[in-house]
Structures are given as C-alpha cells and as structure tokens.
Amino acid sequence: QVHLVESGGGSVQAGGSLRLSCLASGDTYSSYDMAWFRQAPGQEREGVAAINTADRTSYADSVKGRFTISQDNDKKMLYLQMNSLRPEDNAVYYCAARRRPIWANYAPPLSRASFGDWGQGTQVTVSS
Prior knowledge:
By secondary structure, the protein is mainly beta. It has strands at 2-7, 10-13, 18-26, 32-39, 46-51, 57-59, 67-72, 77-82, 91-99, 117-118, 122-127. The model has no long low-confidence stretch (mean pLDDT 96).
C-alpha cells in the first residue's frame, strides 16, 4: 500500500496551465502503476491519465494533446501537466495507485475499479 498526497491545484483562467504533483510514500513506488482521476460536482470520478512502470501512458480523449502525465521514480513523484485548460476541466483531481500486474506490454487502465490507493484530492478551478 502507498500513501499519496497531491499538490499544485488552484485557480486559473481558461487557456492557462497548472502542474499537479503527487508524492507517494510507503511501499516501493516502482512496483505501482499510477494515475490521475478527477471528479466534478455531481459527476462520477473519471480517469484522466495513467502511467505504468514502463512509462507507457493512457489518456482520456477529453485531455489528449493538452495534459501530460509523467513520473520521477527516484523522487516517488507523479505529475500532471495541464495546458490549455477549459472550464469543463473544473474538478477535484485525485492521484491513484495500483500494484502492477505480472504481465508486460499493457496499457495502464483508466477505470476507477482498477486502482485501490487514493490521495485526498486537490481542487482545480478554471474560469472562463
């Protein structure tokens, strides 16, 4: 199990950028696939971007070309660079982790049910 703490949220105007960070502690970071999810008021929590231990990535269609997920294994840090932000990106953003599966060559999932460790979330507000 890993403990996750997000930071970097805030308020920005449409078209602006933010960089979210997630610090992991506890278990061996390199054994985990990582992801960012978000939840808007009254909406289901949805997967935004994911990265596996081989640095293979997956993105939701709504953020492709605008968001970039990355990680630093030595620092146990996960990042989400968000550019060209839109009002519809307003949400609480969560960092999530799951133990990597035993098989190789897989795309990391974006389903909530695939991840078992969660941070507390950080608010992102985009004004038009």
